[in-house]
Specification:
Elements (H helix, E strand, L loop, with lengths): L10 H9 L3 H9 L2 H5 L4 H23 L8 H16 L5 H23 L4 H21 L1 H4 L24 H22 L2 H11 L11 H27 L9 H14 L5 H20 L4 H15 L3 H14 L1
Helix pairs in contact: 4-9, 4-11, 4-12, 4-13, 5-6, 5-11, 6-11, 9-11, 10-11, 12-13, 12-15, 13-14
GO molecular function: branched-chain amino acid transmembrane transporter activity
Protein name: Branched-chain amino acid ABC transporter permease
Main location: membrane
Length: 329
């Protein structure tokens, strides 16, 4: 995780400097339009990357910044996905309101779960999040009359965005829509992490025992960020439903939770863009390696993960930041 070192001129000035948009951030978002012009056949993959990146950002808020280790965050992703699908089944296929309703529903469940999350730590926390994820998956499978079970939710019909842009087979609308929502999610997340609230989350991550001593209501702050994270994950799940018009049990699977943690390790936790970079590397590598070796592509992902952990323990962005720091010195 990224270490937080605040200079002597005070936390407020440090936060203001951190909240400024940098040139490389602007370059990153400009580069996000490259698939439209140079890789139009990969726009469907690009939309999947944007959706997964938003999910990774939601997990990074609690894992990278608050230090809450989770292996069951796909529960909120899947709840958002099913909520968006069931809304269309009920006759309401408007995508933007569907996103908001799905995110709100996931956030509500996240708020309820947060009362349990703040009471456990370390290994018990991992087991609790894992158990909740597995329970939700089995519950969705058992309620096949509502979720479709292993067959998935059928008959999902999403209306055009703003009533004008239909989801086409080539992925132009899907990628534009997913990229716009990802950008808004990053803007909101930046505002959170570069605030006094975000600074208190770093304090919880680095030394939970000292936070009550300085009068910080750490449980309330953990509940707040967990609820926000669940809501963003639910929006990511709803995005997947709306852009593919399908919902399956895979949205709730442990594999999805584990994969997003791998993405954060690759890109770097506690760096906001680490999850996005990790999602790009992971999904592009999976797409290419699956074509080369459909059976053993995960072997190469594991090899890549080991190389990054050994050579750049703080992730790719952490390694690049270390190199840039040395060059400046």
């Amino acid at each position: 995780m990224a270490e937080t070192v605040i200079p002597d001129d005070g936390p407020q000035r440090w936060l203001r400097r951190q909240s400024r948009w940098t040139a490389w951030e602007a370059a990153f978002w400009v580069a996000a339009f490259i698939p439209f012009f140079f890789f139009p056949t990969y726009l469907t993959l690009a939309s999947q990357i944007a959706i997964t990146a938003l999910f990774a950002v939601s997990v990074d808020l609690i894992l990278g910044y608050a230090g809450v280790i989770t292996l069951g965050h796909a529960m909120f992703f899947g709840l958002g996905a099913y909520c968006a699908g069931l809304l269309t089944k009920a006759g309401w296929g408007e995508p933007l309101s569907g996103l908001l309703l799905s995110g709100t529903f996931a956030a509500l469940i996240g708020f309820i779960v947060s009362f349990l999350i703040v009471r456990v730590h370390h290994l018990a926390l991992i087991m609790i999040t894992l158990g909740l994820g597995l329970l939700t998956l089995e519950l969705a499978n058992a309620m096949s009359w509502l979720t479709g079970g292993t067959d998935g939710l059928q008959g999902v019909d999403v209306w055009p965005v703003f009533g004008a842009f239909e989801f086409d087979l080539w992925g132009y609308t899907a990628y534009s829509y997913a990229l716009a929502v990802l950008f808004l999610g990053v803007v909101v997340s930046r505002r959170i992490v570069h605030s006094s609230f975000g600074l208190s989350l770093r304090g919880i991550r680095e030394n939970l025992g000292r936070m009550p001593a300085i009068g910080s209501p750490y449980r309330l702050r953990l509940q707040t960020i967990y609820t926000i994270s669940a809501g963003i994950a639910g929006i990511a799940g709803a995005l997947l439903t709306q852009t593919t018009e399908t919902v399956s049990l895979d949205t709730l699977s442990f594999q999805r939770s584990a994969d997003v943690v791998v993405m954060l390790i690759l890109g770097g936790t506690g760096r906001l863009y680490g999850g996005i970079v990790g999602a790009i590397i992971f999904l592009v590598a999976r797409d290419q390696l699956a074509d080369m070796n459909p059976q053993y592509w995960y072997f190469w992902i594991g090899l890549l993960l080991m190389a990054v952990v050994l050579l750049m323990p703080k992730g790719i962005l952490g390694g690049l930041a270390s190199v840039a720091g040395r060059l400046r010195r």
